[in-house]
Write a structure and sequence with these properties.
The protein folds into two domains: 76 residues, GMP Synthetase, Chain A, domain 3, CATH 3.30.300; 61 residues, SH3 type barrels (Roll). It is 25% helix and 37% strand. It has four helices and eight strands; from the N terminus they run H-E-E-H-H-E-H-E-E-E-E-E. The radius of gyration is 17 Å and the shape is globular.
Length: 154
């Protein structure tokens, strides 16, 4: 069984060695599947290139301990978060203030609502989203957010 904490402990120093940081880990949903490691540049706004991903992948694959952690039927994928990146952690939301988001959250009736708008602020416990349709700023408890991603406007 893959453990996120063990993977983070292994991946973070390797990413930092190349001037990168670990953004997220998507664990495979089944016995097989894809282990997705998402990396970013330490300096915000700089794009992650294919060579950056390849360096981290090669270095990870060469670590003996990694072979013990990764089941043989799981494929490793290292990539950048992309413009429509998933937001999962408080750090992700802090880094997305000012960006346009698509957020799925539970409402008062415990049903999921999908909200789109600009993230105005995030304090670790709640986010304020200026809604596209009305311009109204709504506060959403972080605990009520079931899914969120940057919704880059082309």
């Amino acid at each position: 069984m893959l453990r996120r904490s063990e993977l983070e402990e292994l991946i973070k120093p390797i990413a930092e060695e190349f001037g990168l940081k670990l953004f997220d880990i998507d664990l495979p949903s089944a016995a097989g599947g894809i282990l997705r490691i998402t990396i970013m540049k330490e300096k915000a706004g700089e794009p992650v290139g294919v060579e950056d991903c390849a360096k981290v992948s090669r270095k990870l694959s060469a670590v003996d301990r990694f072979e013990d952690i990764l089941p043989p039927n799981v494929v490793l994928e290292v990539s950048s978060p992309g413009v429509n990146r998933k937001l999962r952690t408080p750090e992700h939301f802090e880094g997305a203030v000012g960006e346009h988001l698509k957020v799925k959250a539970f409402n008062a009736e415990n049903k999921k609502d999908t909200l789109c708008g600009v993230l105005k602020s995030f304090n670790g416990e709640a986010l304020e989203l200026e809604l596209d349709k009305s311009g109204e700023v709504v506060a959403l408890p972080f605990a009520d957010v079931s899914e969120a991603r940057v919704d880059f406007q082309f």
